[in-house]
Amino acid sequence: MLWPLTVLLATAAVTLAIGWVVDQTLQRVGARHPGAPVWALLRRCRIPLQLTVASALLLAASPLKRILHEHDEGIHHLVLLFLLASLGWLTVRVVAAVLEAVLGRYETVVGDPSRVQRMTTQIGMLRRVVSAVIVVVTIAVMLLTFSAMRTIGASLLASAGIIGIVAGIAAQSALGNFFAGLQIAFGDTVRLGDTVVVDGQQGTVEEITLSYLVVRLWDYRRLVVPVSYFVNKPFENWTRRDPGLLAAVLLHLDHSTRIDDLRTALRARLGENPLWDGAEWALQVTDTTPSTIVVRATMTARTPDDAAQLRFDVREQLIAHLRDEHPHALPRLRTTEG
Q1: Closest CA to 114 of 23, 7, 193
Q2: Helix or strand or coil: residue 37?
């Protein structure tokens, strides 16, 4: 009885020692290479690494067999399952750390926000796909350790055709969303942070998964849309190539409005507004009606949010300018007598 307990204590001590040594090594290597974040991220793998080492040592030494002789096979199988699960967890953690380090390195090298958003979307989607594959493979290998699963393997293969057809029909929608998510991630049609318009709702892409996409609307509501929507239906992406945007303000004014003076006022207001990026601006008469003229003021901004706020500011400032300086330019309802 003393020897198995000694082996158990030795296994625990070796596991803790290996975990500590690996953690200290990664910490020192990370301190020597501060530009490589992968070493610091790999320190998150300490717990699954220790579980893997412990289960491997127990499987090799099998000290529990000497304690409970009547459950030798059951304990051996349980430790084997624990080892496979720990290996799957460790692999998921390592892959996530490597991909996150690649993304962090890319962000420091590339200064283009659009390219960083594209890489963030692709890395996030790739991480989910790889993690899902690792989990499925791990579960499959764990199931194959059961003798009953191997015994009924022949009958399962005989009915695989029918099961495959039924599963294909049942999972058609899920598989469609899965491949649509891959197409979105690597086709660069939608990225995290993009401003999109879906069914008349404008918002910012907040999350992209293998099955759905979350759009944060202007009032902080979340619009959850299947990823297949962005493959099968048209939508607007305002920031796919350039995050800048052209904002427009429409005013209905009297025919006697002095356009040159209003154009000068617009230029002065834009020069004082930090939201204007200084690239383009214009003020034009775009239409006329029997009672008013339609004046359109356009100006560019760096982001869709800046464009929206700039549009609000310019509309308010132009109306205030007309009210104070040229009240006759505001629309009036004309009546005649007689």
Answers
A1: 193
A2: coil
pLDDT at 242: 57
At residue 286, φ and ψ (nearest 5 deg) are -100, -20
Residue 307's pLDDT is: 84
Which two tokens mark 135?
A: 């989990």
Distances (CA, A) of 197 to 101, 241, 305: 32, 15, 14
Domain 173-237: give its CATH code: 2.30.30.60
Looking at residue 268, its pLDDT comes to 92
The first and second tokens of residue 191, run together, are: 């990225």
Which residue in this structure is represented by tokens 């003076």?
A: 261
pLDDT score of 328: 87
CATH architecture of the domain with residue range 245-329: 2-Layer Sandwich (3.30)
CA-CA-CA-CA torsion sign (11, 12, 17, 22): positive
- Strand (E) positions, the chain? 195-198, 201-208, 212-217, 222-226, 236-237, 245-253, 276-288, 293-301
Low-confidence ranges of the chain (pLDDT < 50): 68, 70, 153-163, 165-167, 169-171, 338
Per-residue pLDDT tens for 38-56? 777 777 888 888 888 888 8
Distance of CA 235 to the CA centre of its chain: 18
Rg (CA), the chain: 32
Name the residue among 192, 10, 40 with its Cα closest to residue 101: 40
Structural domain boundaries in the chain: 2-109, 173-237, 245-329
- From its phi and psi, is residue 47 left (phi > 0), alpha (psi between -120 and 50) or beta? alpha
Q: What Cα–Cα distance (Å) separates residue 237 from each residue in 140, 188, 198, 258?
A: 41, 11, 9, 37
